[in-house]
Design goal:
Number of strands: 7
Largest sheet: 5 strands, mixed
Shape: elongated
Strand content: 5-15%
Helix content: 40-55%
Structural class: alpha/beta
Number of helices: 18
Strand order of the largest sheet: 1-5-3-4-2
Number of domains: 2
């Protein structure tokens, strides 16, 4: 098929529209439940009050702001695909934004900006005299218009997820996993809740022992995804990918849309794997073993997670009924040490070794060595 034919064919799958809409109209749609800004997303978007005040300043001064992208569901409700923080900031400022439980959040109080220093301490309404927008200014604000781009409901169902992913990975400050989390909330919120529950299990958090910054960026959730995906993957499949991040996202989408996916069984394997690691190695589980100093040292290493954690998960059937007493735990630690000093592991896990080479080579090493 020629390029022009591919373009024509794909265009048929996407139906879009666009027009300006006043802030007052958008607020009304939100109050009626006709537009969903996904309150769950607020944990991933981290605008400061300064950024929020700058947005309100831009609206008041008529400075153009980027378009809001929405996707129309079959029932007519608009899902906000891009522009979550902009709309949330506006709704919070006017006192209409609801949290995940459906309760209204406290209206924001602005700070002064370079062009409008008098915004300092200002609220939209229900504030102290002299620090609220008067009725004229409230009307002016609500009449200001935002540009909306709409992906219509007759478009291919995957278009909105693709659109969200593209818009939020080009110049975005969200981590890859924060974008994936948002996608999960849109596709299958129950699966998202399950995934986060696994990521926050005490034994798992103890073994990965990540810095707070990485936890904030949801890297622990990404590690759970890696475990679930790579535990059952035919490892040669990884050789076909040029971007592991895209690979993980695609597998995640397929996993959460698969009605036959056995979450109960996968959780059983996950819990057992990290229970063994926690009882045997604890926070040393994925740290490099220094054979000269005869100790584990440093911080979390992804190669250790793959060769120890994922390999152990792949060997679940062999460890399922093994009681982890002191003797078994010491034997297990020796097996892990042998992975780190294995010459093949070292040559395939050092600095500069890409994932396409690393994963298919080091996980089988762990599988061979981590047996009861």
């Amino acid at each position: 098929m020629s390029l022009i034919s591919e373009i024509d064919e794909r265009k048929k799958e996407i139906s879009t529209d666009g027009y300006p809409m006043s802030i007052g109209e958008i607020i009304s749609l939100y109050k009626e439940g006709a537009i969903d800004v996904h309150p769950e997303f607020q944990r991933f978007f981290r605008w400061s009050i300064y950024q929020k005040s700058k947005l309100i300043e831009s609206i008041l001064l008529g400075i153009p702001i980027p378009s809001i992208f929405v996707s129309q569901r079959k029932n007519g409700v608009w899902d906000v695909v891009d522009g979550q923080q902009r709309l949330s900031t506006i709704l919070e400022f006017v006192g209409e934004l609801k949290d995940i439980s459906g309760e209204k959040m406290a209206a924001s109080t602005l700070i002064g900006t370079s062009y409008l220093p008098s915004l300092e301490g200002m609220k939209f309404k229900d504030g102290d005299v002299g620090h609220i927008f008067d009725l004229d200014l409230q009307f002016i604000f609500k009449r200001e218009k935002l540009d909306l781009k709409i992906v219509k409901r007759e478009s291919d169902e995957n278009v909105k997820y693709e659109l969200f992913q593209r818009l939020n990975t080009l110049g975005s400050k969200l981590s890859d996993q924060e974008v994936r989390n948002c996608l999960l909330v849109m596709i299958n919120p129950e699966f998202y809740d399950w995934l986060v529950a696994l990521a926050n299990s005490p034994s798992f958090l103890e073994t990965i022992s990540l810095a707070d910054r990485l936890i904030d960026e949801q890297y622990h959730v990404e590690l759970v995804l890696r475990f679930l995906i790579l535990r059952t993957l035919q490892l040669d499949e990884i050789k076909s990918t040029q971007d592991l991040g895209v690979f993980i996202t695609d597998r995640m989408k397929a996993m959460c849309q698969n009605s036959a996916y056995n979450k109960a069984q996968e959780q059983l394997i996950f819990d057992r794997t990290f229970d063994i690691l926690d009882k045997s190695l604890g926070s040393d589980s994925f740290k490099r073993y220094n054979s000269q100093k005869q100790k584990f040292e440093g911080s979390f290493l992804i190669s250790g997670f793959e060769a120890v954690g994922i390999a152990l998960g792949r060997n679940y059937d062999q460890w399922r009924d093994v009681t982890i007493d002191r003797n078994i735990g010491e034997q297990f630690v020796e097996k892990v040490k042998n992975i780190w000093i294995n010459a093949e592991f070292q040559s395939n896990s050092g600095t500069g070794v890409n994932v396409v080479r690393r994963v298919p080579n080091i996980i089988p090493i762990g599988q061979r060595l981590l047996v009861p």
